Amino acid sequence: MRKITKIVALALMVILSMTVIAGCGATKAETFMIGGIGPISGPNAAYGLGVQNGAQIAVDEINAAGGINGLEIQFNMQDDEADAEKAVNAYNTLKDWGMNILMGTVTSGACISVIDLTEADNMFQITPSASAIDVVTDNDNVFQVCFSDPNQGVGAAQYIGQQGIQSADGTNVSKVAVIYDSSDPYSSGIYEKFTEEAANQDFEIVASEAFTADSKTDFSVQLQRARDAGATLVFLPIYYTEAALILTQADGMDYAPIFFGCDGIDGILTNVENFDASLAEGMILLTPFAADEDDEKIQAFVTEYQARHNEVPNQFAADAYDAIYAIKAAIETSGVTYDQSISEICEGMKVAMTEITIDGLTGLGLSWTASGEVNKEPKAMSIVNGSYQLIQ
After folding, report:
1. What three-state secondary structure class fits 338?
2. CB 326 within 8 A of CB 16
């Protein structure tokens, strides 16, 4: 009798264990598992934290409204510190977690390090902010939410050439210098297209000054050459950490041109330690998102973001919010289900991405080409009284 009792008890334990395992598996599997990768620590953390926070707001909204086809989203953001090797490690961590859709990575260099992996796995990938054209050139599973580097370079040159930006003496800007990071795909990609389009505009590039990842603390030589060449506007297709150093060093040498940047500048007002934000006054940048825009959806997002994080969201947060809603639309249009393979989900979604149109925070009527590029226009903003203001 005792032996039979032990056998029955053992059988019950096995059944109970299998039930628990099956239950846990069902809870995890019956969702769309979206992974995110970006710098949520380190000098570029403003980008990754913005993406993490903006994406989470979208995820919470969608789940509260019933999810996607009745299924909730699980979202897991991993830190890559904008480092290529760490981005690869983050991708593998997310695969172990159960990711079947990737939103990331945030920066172009890290994103390029991951795209071969997503291509090999046929994992659907949408990046909120990696703008290098190499991100989407050869990979039909990868889509961008931000406008690409070529578009930013062309748009910046056209804006400078056509908007009549005035120098301190009241004349239109006619001499422009460029300071860029030749070791970074984002910066060098924008620079290349900017210089090409500048040839069609009514201004002259009088100095093109490069730096690299190994020489980005002292910009005195680049600034001196820009000043000696008579540049009254300096174009900075770089990230905010280096831009803050350039503005500080320009002030130290009494050089006060107009500084003009792209979306990488977003974060300069609040995310650079010991930087005098007043030095950024009057700076112009192209970005897809304006937090002060009079739009009900944008203001609802800004209000929610401020309530959660006590700060105004940057364009990276808005891009990530739109990325999550693009994923939702592509899933609904394609009809893919949570229990399909990663490859099956990708095949359905990448076709759907060419069919959907969404009204996002970063543009109305957002749509995508088969190559993965988004159709939308940048907005011009200036820094006035310590905040970003949309230039009408």
Report:
1. coil
2. no
